[in-house]
Specification:
Blueprint: E1 24-28, H1 35-42, E2 46-48, E3 53-57, E4 63-70, E5 77-87, E6 92-96, H2 105-115, E7 122-126, E8 132-136, E9 141-149, H3 155-164, E10 172-180, H4 181-186, E11 193-195, E12 209-211, E13 222-225, H5 227-237, E14 243-245, H6 248-252, E15 259-263, E16 271-273, E17 276-280, H7 285-298
Parallel strand pairs: 1-3, 6-7, 9-10, 9-15, 11-12, 11-13, 13-14, 15-17
Antiparallel strand pairs: 2-5, 3-4, 4-5, 7-8, 16-17
Length: 302
Protein backbone atom coordinates (compact mmCIF):
# COMPACT_ATOMS: atom_id res chain seq x y z
CA UNK A 1 0.00 0.00 0.00
CA UNK A 2 0.99 3.65 -0.26
CA UNK A 3 3.44 4.51 2.51
CA UNK A 4 2.65 7.91 4.07
CA UNK A 5 4.57 7.78 7.36
CA UNK A 6 7.58 5.98 8.76
CA UNK A 7 6.76 2.41 9.85
CA UNK A 8 8.76 0.52 12.43
CA UNK A 9 11.06 -0.41 9.57
CA UNK A 10 11.24 1.01 6.07
CA UNK A 11 12.64 -2.27 4.84
CA UNK A 12 9.28 -4.03 5.02
CA UNK A 13 7.28 -1.20 3.41
CA UNK A 14 5.70 -2.02 0.06
CA UNK A 15 5.44 0.56 -2.72
CA UNK A 16 7.78 2.93 -0.91
CA UNK A 17 8.41 5.98 -3.13
CA UNK A 18 9.97 8.97 -1.33
CA UNK A 19 8.21 12.22 -2.21
CA UNK A 20 9.30 14.84 -2.80
CA UNK A 21 12.32 13.17 -4.37
CA UNK A 22 14.68 15.75 -2.90
CA UNK A 23 14.58 13.42 0.12
CA UNK A 24 16.80 11.07 -1.92
CA UNK A 25 20.55 11.69 -2.17
CA UNK A 26 22.71 9.86 -4.71
CA UNK A 27 26.29 9.26 -3.59
CA UNK A 28 29.30 7.35 -4.95
CA UNK A 29 30.47 4.45 -2.86
CA UNK A 30 33.78 2.61 -2.72
CA UNK A 31 34.16 -0.56 -0.73
CA UNK A 32 32.28 -3.76 0.00
CA UNK A 33 28.52 -3.34 -0.36
CA UNK A 34 27.53 -5.13 2.80
CA UNK A 35 25.14 -3.93 5.47
CA UNK A 36 27.93 -3.71 8.03
CA UNK A 37 30.31 -1.76 5.80
CA UNK A 38 27.63 0.65 4.60
CA UNK A 39 26.38 1.29 8.11
CA UNK A 40 29.88 1.87 9.48
CA UNK A 41 30.70 4.37 6.76
CA UNK A 42 27.46 6.37 6.88
CA UNK A 43 27.37 6.54 10.67
CA UNK A 44 30.62 8.51 10.44
CA UNK A 45 29.06 11.14 8.16
CA UNK A 46 26.70 14.05 8.21
CA UNK A 47 23.62 14.39 5.99
CA UNK A 48 21.73 17.33 4.54
CA UNK A 49 18.60 18.24 6.51
CA UNK A 50 16.25 17.14 3.70
CA UNK A 51 17.93 13.78 3.12
CA UNK A 52 16.06 10.72 4.38
CA UNK A 53 17.28 8.13 1.84
CA UNK A 54 20.59 7.55 0.11
CA UNK A 55 21.23 5.69 -3.14
CA UNK A 56 24.80 4.37 -3.16
CA UNK A 57 26.41 3.89 -6.58
CA UNK A 58 29.30 1.43 -6.26
CA UNK A 59 31.77 -0.21 -8.58
CA UNK A 60 30.74 -2.73 -11.26
CA UNK A 61 27.24 -1.23 -11.41
CA UNK A 62 26.46 -2.30 -7.88
CA UNK A 63 23.86 -0.25 -6.03
CA UNK A 64 22.27 -0.05 -2.62
CA UNK A 65 19.52 1.99 -1.00
CA UNK A 66 19.43 3.02 2.65
CA UNK A 67 17.19 5.03 4.95
CA UNK A 68 18.79 7.30 7.52
CA UNK A 69 17.90 9.48 10.46
CA UNK A 70 19.74 12.63 11.51
CA UNK A 71 20.46 14.04 14.95
CA UNK A 72 18.65 17.29 14.15
CA UNK A 73 16.35 18.55 11.41
CA UNK A 74 17.00 22.32 11.46
CA UNK A 75 20.77 22.71 10.85
CA UNK A 76 21.83 22.52 7.19
CA UNK A 77 23.81 19.35 7.96
CA UNK A 78 23.52 17.03 10.93
CA UNK A 79 25.17 13.82 12.12
CA UNK A 80 23.62 10.58 10.83
CA UNK A 81 22.27 8.69 13.85
CA UNK A 82 20.82 5.54 12.28
CA UNK A 83 21.10 3.59 9.04
CA UNK A 84 18.65 1.03 7.71
CA UNK A 85 19.74 -0.83 4.60
CA UNK A 86 16.72 -1.32 2.38
CA UNK A 87 18.36 -2.99 -0.60
CA UNK A 88 21.76 -4.44 -1.48
CA UNK A 89 23.04 -5.26 -5.00
CA UNK A 90 21.28 -8.63 -5.07
CA UNK A 91 17.85 -6.95 -5.05
CA UNK A 92 18.60 -3.42 -6.26
CA UNK A 93 18.50 -2.36 -9.92
CA UNK A 94 19.50 1.05 -11.29
CA UNK A 95 18.19 2.15 -14.69
CA UNK A 96 17.99 5.31 -16.77
CA UNK A 97 14.66 6.23 -18.36
CA UNK A 98 14.76 9.79 -19.66
CA UNK A 99 11.00 9.95 -20.20
CA UNK A 100 9.94 8.74 -16.75
CA UNK A 101 8.71 11.23 -14.16
CA UNK A 102 10.36 10.01 -10.98
CA UNK A 103 7.80 11.91 -8.90
CA UNK A 104 5.10 9.61 -10.29
CA UNK A 105 4.53 6.42 -8.31
CA UNK A 106 2.75 4.57 -11.11
CA UNK A 107 5.50 5.48 -13.58
CA UNK A 108 8.12 3.96 -11.27
CA UNK A 109 5.95 0.89 -10.76
CA UNK A 110 5.70 0.63 -14.54
CA UNK A 111 9.48 0.52 -14.86
CA UNK A 112 9.62 -2.20 -12.21
CA UNK A 113 7.03 -4.23 -14.11
CA UNK A 114 8.93 -3.75 -17.36
CA UNK A 115 12.05 -5.13 -15.68
CA UNK A 116 10.23 -8.00 -14.00
CA UNK A 117 11.01 -6.66 -10.53
CA UNK A 118 8.42 -7.70 -7.95
CA UNK A 119 7.71 -7.13 -4.26
CA UNK A 120 11.11 -8.37 -3.13
CA UNK A 121 13.12 -5.89 -5.20
CA UNK A 122 14.03 -2.22 -5.42
CA UNK A 123 14.28 -0.17 -8.61
CA UNK A 124 16.22 3.10 -8.75
CA UNK A 125 15.35 5.26 -11.76
CA UNK A 126 17.23 8.21 -13.19
CA UNK A 127 14.50 9.85 -15.18
CA UNK A 128 13.06 13.11 -16.42
CA UNK A 129 15.32 16.14 -15.77
CA UNK A 130 17.99 13.70 -14.50
CA UNK A 131 16.14 13.36 -11.20
CA UNK A 132 16.63 10.11 -9.29
CA UNK A 133 14.09 8.27 -7.17
CA UNK A 134 13.26 4.67 -6.32
CA UNK A 135 10.39 2.33 -5.64
CA UNK A 136 11.03 -0.24 -2.92
CA UNK A 137 9.17 -3.56 -2.95
CA UNK A 138 6.84 -2.60 -5.82
CA UNK A 139 3.41 -4.16 -5.59
CA UNK A 140 1.07 -1.81 -7.50
CA UNK A 141 -2.67 -2.16 -7.52
CA UNK A 142 -3.61 -3.82 -10.81
CA UNK A 143 -6.74 -2.25 -12.27
CA UNK A 144 -8.50 -4.02 -15.13
CA UNK A 145 -10.06 -1.53 -17.52
CA UNK A 146 -12.89 -3.09 -19.53
CA UNK A 147 -13.65 -0.98 -22.57
CA UNK A 148 -15.09 -1.17 -26.07
CA UNK A 149 -12.95 -0.60 -29.15
CA UNK A 150 -12.97 1.25 -31.45
CA UNK A 151 -12.24 4.10 -30.91
CA UNK A 152 -8.51 3.58 -30.77
CA UNK A 153 -7.09 3.73 -28.18
CA UNK A 154 -10.14 2.69 -26.16
CA UNK A 155 -11.29 5.93 -24.54
CA UNK A 156 -11.60 4.91 -20.87
CA UNK A 157 -8.21 3.21 -20.96
CA UNK A 158 -6.69 6.35 -22.47
CA UNK A 159 -8.28 8.56 -19.81
CA UNK A 160 -7.06 6.30 -17.00
CA UNK A 161 -3.51 6.34 -18.38
CA UNK A 162 -3.65 10.12 -18.55
CA UNK A 163 -4.85 10.35 -14.94
CA UNK A 164 -2.01 8.15 -13.72
CA UNK A 165 0.46 10.44 -15.48
CA UNK A 166 -0.32 13.33 -13.14
CA UNK A 167 -2.56 12.36 -10.21
CA UNK A 168 -1.25 11.88 -6.67
CA UNK A 169 -2.31 8.24 -6.36
CA UNK A 170 -0.72 5.05 -5.04
CA UNK A 171 1.15 2.97 -7.62
CA UNK A 172 -1.23 1.40 -10.12
CA UNK A 173 -0.88 -0.70 -13.23
CA UNK A 174 -3.63 -0.76 -15.83
CA UNK A 175 -4.59 -3.88 -17.77
CA UNK A 176 -6.89 -3.41 -20.74
CA UNK A 177 -9.63 -5.92 -21.45
CA UNK A 178 -10.90 -4.99 -24.91
CA UNK A 179 -14.42 -5.58 -26.10
CA UNK A 180 -14.22 -5.59 -29.87
CA UNK A 181 -17.40 -4.00 -31.16
CA UNK A 182 -16.77 -5.52 -34.59
CA UNK A 183 -16.76 -8.99 -33.03
CA UNK A 184 -20.09 -8.20 -31.35
CA UNK A 185 -21.52 -7.04 -34.66
CA UNK A 186 -20.23 -10.04 -36.59
CA UNK A 187 -21.71 -12.44 -34.04
CA UNK A 188 -25.02 -11.91 -35.86
CA UNK A 189 -25.89 -11.74 -39.55
CA UNK A 190 -28.72 -9.26 -40.02
CA UNK A 191 -29.87 -7.68 -43.25
CA UNK A 192 -29.17 -4.25 -41.70
CA UNK A 193 -27.20 -2.98 -38.70
CA UNK A 194 -28.04 -0.10 -36.39
CA UNK A 195 -25.19 1.27 -34.26
CA UNK A 196 -25.19 4.19 -31.83
CA UNK A 197 -23.05 6.65 -33.82
CA UNK A 198 -20.32 7.02 -36.42
CA UNK A 199 -17.52 7.27 -33.84
CA UNK A 200 -17.61 3.50 -33.42
CA UNK A 201 -15.78 2.95 -36.72
CA UNK A 202 -18.36 0.42 -37.88
CA UNK A 203 -19.40 1.87 -41.22
CA UNK A 204 -17.90 -1.03 -43.19
CA UNK A 205 -19.72 -4.03 -41.73
CA UNK A 206 -20.85 -6.82 -44.10
CA UNK A 207 -24.37 -5.32 -44.29
CA UNK A 208 -25.74 -1.78 -44.54
CA UNK A 209 -25.14 0.29 -41.40
CA UNK A 210 -27.35 3.03 -39.97
CA UNK A 211 -26.59 5.34 -37.06
CA UNK A 212 -29.07 5.81 -34.26
CA UNK A 213 -28.02 9.38 -33.44
CA UNK A 214 -28.93 10.40 -37.01
CA UNK A 215 -32.51 9.11 -36.51
CA UNK A 216 -32.73 7.28 -39.85
CA UNK A 217 -35.88 5.90 -41.40
CA UNK A 218 -36.88 2.63 -39.72
CA UNK A 219 -35.45 -0.57 -41.24
CA UNK A 220 -35.50 -4.23 -40.32
CA UNK A 221 -32.21 -3.96 -38.44
CA UNK A 222 -30.38 -5.51 -35.53
CA UNK A 223 -29.03 -2.95 -33.10
CA UNK A 224 -25.53 -3.12 -31.60
CA UNK A 225 -26.05 -1.06 -28.48
CA UNK A 226 -26.73 -0.71 -24.79
CA UNK A 227 -29.77 -0.01 -22.65
CA UNK A 228 -29.58 3.73 -23.31
CA UNK A 229 -29.55 3.11 -27.06
CA UNK A 230 -32.60 0.91 -26.59
CA UNK A 231 -34.33 3.76 -24.76
CA UNK A 232 -33.54 6.09 -27.66
CA UNK A 233 -34.93 3.52 -30.09
CA UNK A 234 -38.18 3.25 -28.14
CA UNK A 235 -38.48 7.04 -28.20
CA UNK A 236 -37.74 7.36 -31.92
CA UNK A 237 -39.62 4.32 -33.25
CA UNK A 238 -41.88 3.04 -30.47
CA UNK A 239 -40.49 -0.50 -30.49
CA UNK A 240 -37.52 -2.68 -29.56
CA UNK A 241 -35.38 -4.30 -32.27
CA UNK A 242 -33.22 -7.41 -31.91
CA UNK A 243 -30.13 -6.24 -30.04
CA UNK A 244 -26.56 -7.28 -29.27
CA UNK A 245 -25.41 -5.94 -25.88
CA UNK A 246 -22.34 -3.69 -25.93
CA UNK A 247 -22.39 -2.24 -22.41
CA UNK A 248 -19.00 -2.93 -20.77
CA UNK A 249 -20.65 -3.14 -17.36
CA UNK A 250 -23.13 -5.77 -18.50
CA UNK A 251 -20.54 -7.73 -20.45
CA UNK A 252 -18.04 -7.64 -17.56
CA UNK A 253 -20.45 -9.07 -15.01
CA UNK A 254 -19.31 -9.38 -11.40
CA UNK A 255 -15.55 -9.11 -10.90
CA UNK A 256 -13.51 -9.86 -7.79
CA UNK A 257 -10.47 -7.84 -8.87
CA UNK A 258 -10.16 -4.07 -9.07
CA UNK A 259 -12.01 -3.11 -12.24
CA UNK A 260 -12.90 0.11 -14.03
CA UNK A 261 -15.77 0.21 -16.53
CA UNK A 262 -18.20 2.75 -17.97
CA UNK A 263 -21.95 2.70 -18.37
CA UNK A 264 -24.14 5.15 -20.28
CA UNK A 265 -26.95 4.82 -17.72
CA UNK A 266 -24.76 6.94 -15.43
CA UNK A 267 -24.61 10.61 -16.33
CA UNK A 268 -23.37 12.76 -13.44
CA UNK A 269 -21.83 10.43 -10.87
CA UNK A 270 -19.71 7.33 -10.37
CA UNK A 271 -20.75 4.11 -8.65
CA UNK A 272 -19.00 1.35 -6.74
CA UNK A 273 -20.10 -2.26 -7.08
CA UNK A 274 -17.91 -4.47 -4.91
CA UNK A 275 -14.41 -4.09 -6.43
CA UNK A 276 -15.72 -2.47 -9.60
CA UNK A 277 -15.93 1.28 -10.19
CA UNK A 278 -18.36 2.43 -12.84
CA UNK A 279 -18.10 5.83 -14.50
CA UNK A 280 -20.42 7.50 -17.04
CA UNK A 281 -19.91 6.83 -20.73
CA UNK A 282 -18.93 10.46 -21.21
CA UNK A 283 -16.56 10.59 -18.24
CA UNK A 284 -14.00 13.34 -17.81
CA UNK A 285 -10.60 13.08 -16.17
CA UNK A 286 -11.92 14.19 -12.78
CA UNK A 287 -14.45 11.36 -12.68
CA UNK A 288 -11.87 8.77 -13.70
CA UNK A 289 -9.43 10.07 -11.09
CA UNK A 290 -12.13 9.86 -8.41
CA UNK A 291 -12.89 6.28 -9.43
CA UNK A 292 -9.24 5.22 -9.32
CA UNK A 293 -8.80 6.92 -5.95
CA UNK A 294 -11.79 5.05 -4.58
CA UNK A 295 -10.34 1.77 -5.80
CA UNK A 296 -6.98 2.56 -4.20
CA UNK A 297 -8.66 3.25 -0.86
CA UNK A 298 -10.93 0.23 -0.70
CA UNK A 299 -9.46 -2.61 -2.75
CA UNK A 300 -6.87 -4.81 -1.08
CA UNK A 301 -3.50 -5.24 -2.75
CA UNK A 302 -2.49 -8.71 -3.87
Amino acid sequence: MLQTSKPSTWRSAQNLVPLPYRRVSVQPYVGPMTEEAITTLLMSREAYRRTDFIVLRGENEQNAVVAITRAESEPLFSQITSVEVLALPETCVYVERDEVDTANRSALAGVAHELGIGPEGTVVVKGLYDHVNFIHRPNPLVVRVIEVAPPEPPKLFGLAKQVLSYADLPPMRLELERIEVRDLAESVHPAVYLVPCRSGGLDDLPAPVYFLDEHPERHNWTMIGCERSLQFHRHFYGDEPPRVEMCPRRIAGQRGDATLVKCCLLETHIEKDDNMMIVPWGSDLAMVEAALRKLSEEVQYA
